[in-house]
UniProtKB/TrEMBL annotation:
Coiled coil: none
Pfam families assigned to the protein according to its UniProt record, in alphabetical order: KduI (PF04962)
Physiological role: Involved in the isomerization of 5-deoxy-glucuronate (5DG) to 5-dehydro-2-deoxy-D-gluconate (DKG or 2-deoxy-5-keto-D-gluconate).
UniProt cross-references to HAMAP family, sorted A to Z: IolB (MF_01673)
SUPFAM superfamilies per the UniProt record, alphabetical: RmlC-like cupins
A GO term, aspect molecular function: 5-deoxy-D-glucuronate isomerase activity
Higher taxonomy: Bacteria, Bacillati, Bacillota, Bacilli, Bacillales
EC number in record: 5.3.1.30
Family, per entry: Belongs to the isomerase IolB family.
Source organism, top-level taxon: Bacteria
Annotated protein name in UniProt: 5-deoxy-glucuronate isomerase
Pathway: Polyol metabolism; myo-inositol degradation into acetyl-CoA; acetyl-CoA from myo-inositol: step 4/7
Reaction catalysed by this enzyme: 5-deoxy-D-glucuronate = 5-dehydro-2-deoxy-D-gluconate
Gene that this polypeptide is encoded by: iolB
Keywords of this entry: Isomerase
Length: 272
């Protein structure tokens, strides 16, 4: 199996808390992006001390209460399934803080991490604060919820976005990359993709490749998988009959999303 593809696991780490993914920088190819996916049974709690990392807690599905010892956000989260396609609530917690999540219902939470030194205030990112974008045309249409875009100064490094791609469409397409620290033309951002499909037995294809093809991997991605994008272009193709959801976490030395389209395919954008 590709080094870039992670399958979900189910390890009970405390009563009622199951670790589904654990893609931290000490166990992946990444330096700037970490992520965990956890499931919580109703009433279960998960506590974490953030050392030198900041964290965006995304209430992917279900209802949770999040506190950082000073402030508490009760009963946040808006959906039972990501394919309801409504934005959800998230909480930003800075480095060197402790947070606790308590599940008010069965919940799946994505924890997005990046190394961070400068403390920032804990912040609730409400569902209604997500910037919603409809991108693309023909078979390149997708719906984007910007949870933590570079226009929101709440974080030091983290960028978080979720993308819905309907059956038969392509997204993160035409292929683009952000792996050069060459602003204002391109920024260096690592990225992870947490994928779901509807219906669940579906799969999508994701290719991760560089100009010189020293990295060129095409993966069949199933429900709950994570794809790691250390560099390169990273388009996603969704087969007929299945809808795709993914949550992206990006981070790098500068908190700017400036991507470079692969020139050979840029004409896709220019179609009338
Ligand atoms: O517009 C899309 O299809 C989503 C992508 O931009 C995705 O969020 C990504 O690749 C970010 O670099």
């Amino acid at each position: 199996m590709s080094k870039l593809l992670r399958k979900p696991k189910a390890v009970e780490i405390s009563p009622g808390v199951t670790l589904i993914h654990d893609v931290m920088t000490d166990s992946s190819l990444l330096e700037f992006v970490g992520m965990k996916v956890i499931d919580l049974n109703p009433g279960a709690t998960y506590t974490e001390d953030l050392d030198k990392v900041e964290c965006c807690i995304v209430a992917l599905t279900g209802k949770i209460t999040v506190s950082d010892q000073q402030v508490t956000f009760e009963n946040i989260g808006t959906r039972e399934c990501v394919f309801e396609k409504k934005p959800t609530d998230s909480v930003y917690v800075s480095n060197n803080q402790q947070f606790q999540i308590e599940a008010n219902s069965q919940a799946r939470v994505v924890l997005c991490y990046s190394p961070s030194q400068q403390q920032l205030p804990t912040k609730l990112i409400k569902a209604e604060d997500n910037q919603i974008e409809y991108r693309g045309k023909y078979s390149n249409k997708r719906l984007v919820h910007n949870i933590l875009p570079d226009s929101n100064p709440a974080a030091n490094s983290l960028l978080v976005v979720e993308v819905f791609t309907d059956s038969g469409n392509w997204s993160s397409y035409p292929p683009h990359k952000h792996d050069q620290n060459n602003l204002p033309y391109e920024s260096f951002l690592e990225e992870t993709y947490y994928h779901e499909m509807n219906p669940k037995q579906g799969f999508v294809f994701q290719r991760v490749y560089t100009d010189d093809r020293t990295l060129d991997e095409t993966m069949a991605v199933e429900n709950g998988d994570v794809v790691i994008v250390p560099k390169g272009y990273h388009p996603v193709a969704v087969p007929d009959g299945y809808d795709s959801y993914y949550l992206n976490i990006m981070a790098g030395p500068k908190r700017i999303w400036k991507f470079h389209n692969e020139r050979a395919h840029e004409w896709i954008l220019e179609r009338k």
